[in-house]
Amino acid sequence: MASKRTLQHLVKRFWGKHVRNFSAVPQDSTASSSQHLINLEYECSAHNYHPIPIVFCQAKGSSIWDPEGNKYLDFLSAYSAVNQGHCHPKVLKALVEQAEKLTLSSRAFYNDRFPVYAERLTSMFGYEMVLPMNTGAEGVETALKLARKWGYMKKKIPRDEAIIVSCCGCFHGRTLAAVSMSCDNEATNGFWPLLPGLLKVDFGDEIGLEKIFKEHGEKIAGLLFEPIQGEAGVIIPPDGYLKAVRDLCSKFNVLMIADEIQSGLGRSGRLLACDWEEVRPDVVILGKALGGGVLPVSAVLADKDVMLCIQPGEHGSTFGGNPLASAVAIASLDVIRDERLSDRSAKMGEELRHQLLNVQQRFPEIIKEVRGKGLFNAVELNSKALFPVTAFDICLKLKERGILAKPTHDSIIRLTPPLSMSSAELQEGSKALHDVLEHDLPQMPKEKPQRVSHTAAKVCDRCGRNSFGSS
Description:
single chain; four-stranded mixed beta sheet; 15 strands
């Protein structure tokens, strides 16, 4: 009962007083209330997320409605899974038409959609082969297995000695292999032992990467990296870094593996973020927006010299390449191409950053940095100046003003709206941030339930460095 009362108190506190009701979608009198649904999830679902307290009931394009009919603008896009916009009609049409004919064959048999999808994907990105999976984490696992197999077969690394290098601050999913690379103590604590065969290097540090390659190069099968680090706070590497990585991987015969699950498919203003430096990785991992916000779809792209290291029976997925997902992915790719969403992202991203920089000029002591490429952006806050307020608290106030965003690492707010978002909607988001900092922030320290001492930055268990986001 105590936990229920605590939850109800938090819900009432966070629900806000300034939610706008456009009444664009009529409220369903038979539907459960938002508070009831939040309580129900708290009681019946694992507590592995800390959501912003808003219940999605209906969505279209960049707009979200809750069960009470309140309208919001989505500035997260389900972590870039909805690049095309919510419920895009072409994607939904493909889903419905295919669902009425065939949904699953498994890879024990052929189906008539996957070969078409495979050809579309490989030709669009310029690779010879694709290995289909479902979630982004599965795509990462696939790439890691592929790199190890290639390392033993082609590079002749001694058995059990293959090494994968990853970057500090990376996020590649929640599997044991992915969290073993993590610099986030919350991701690793309690899940030991972490996997062996992994080395770390600072993101953006080509000198450090060359040093590791020189010391361990004969046993390194692959370098797994995000061209733009998402979960770390939209961290963009120095100019020329991606080209340097390509040169080093070629020199030391190491597979360059780009995790483009978030940064790809137009999010950064290019089809792939690696395209900003005209770099071609050996392996590319795609996910999220590949399913158009409708189904989980992921893929690993590589040429035959790498991909055919995996033989029948050595890796697979019952649902990977299923006809329903294949049809949806084809439509999702068509929307990105036909609506020129990469170009649109580049243009709208410049516009959004210009707006955010104006807000920063108004509040230079609060906003530490505005950064991004395309519509992959972040606002980093000065946590010492904000204390005891956090980025999560700022996002709660943005929600009250009709803007949905999500923080990362206490001091960073990601702003990654659908690539279809209009200029007016972008302006609405920037204005809401300005208004929160001007009108809400001065009162927010008084609303915190208790004040705690400002602790020192946490040290990463994995690499021994101070955790990111602890300004």
